Amino acid sequence: MTETLTPPQVLTIAGTDSSGGAGMQADLKTMQECQVFGTCVVVAVTAQNTQSVLDFIAMPKAIIDHQFQALANDLTITAAKTGMLANREVVEAVATNYQKYDFGPLIVDPIMIAKGGAKLLSEDAIQAVKEYLLPLAYLITPNLPEAEKLAGMTIETLEDMDKAAQRLRALGAKNILIKGGHADHTSESVDVLYLENGETHTFVSPRIDTQNTHGTGDTLSSVITAEIAKGADLITALQTAKDFTFAAIKDGIHVGHGHGPLNHWAYRTIEGAHHDI
């Protein structure tokens, strides 16, 4: 008899992307590539493509609650991540449910603005993220503009990143990854991890000249979530996520006419390479 595999089960709490390059679709594609079983709580539905977000609607609290309940009643989820959370009511519903159910470490990717410039998180929701989600998070993964908004300061140097991390820790965040991909005046993408124990670790990759970066943050945080569920320590999970995302950008694909998506199968198909992820 063939042995049945029971893979780690992970969760994305996010909005959809009808073009498939970001949001929940990118999360689930990435999780599958990482050989974990991805589940989802849909908190918003967007109408978007590689050029813009035409419209979106947030899910009612009741359906968010019931999605959490359905998963808790049947599956064994050992790590989760958040993506687009839309408004304060959604943030509060997610925080309440995450305290109710044991879904393991929570990775918070505080998505605020889409690649095309559309605002995906209201001002009062940003305050709710600070109040309710950051203290629950095992790791938060803001990019530079998101870290600036959460920390209430401008970030231009590594020293500024250090100061911002201190402010985020004061809000209750434990481990903090500030992503430097938006610092486009540099030849490298530098991400800095600030651990709860006071250590810092830097992750560097070459910057690739491309506009096909739609869903980069979703992909990175999904790899981290998958690797944590598989038992990796945080530093190892982050390095795998950095390598996976770099490969997905470098070995690109062409879809749409705007900020195109990543190639989510690139990491496992690099010629001559073997990746046990």
What structural keywords apply?
9 strands, alpha/beta, globular, nine-stranded mixed β-sheet, 277 residues
Spatial gap, N to C terminus: 26 Å
Spell the H/E element sequence.
EHEEHEHEHEHHEEEHH
Radius of gyration: 17 Å
Number of helices: 8
What is the total tally of β strands? Answer: 9
Query: Largest sheet, described in full?
Result: 9 strands, mixed
CA-based shape: globular
Unreliable stretches (pLDDT < 50, length at least 5) are none
In the sheet with the most strands, the strands line up as 3-2-1-4-5-6-7-8-9
**Mean pLDDT, as a whole number?**
92
Assess the beta-strand content as a share of residues. Answer: 15-25%
**Structural class assignment:** alpha/beta
**Fraction of residues in H or I helices:** 25-40%
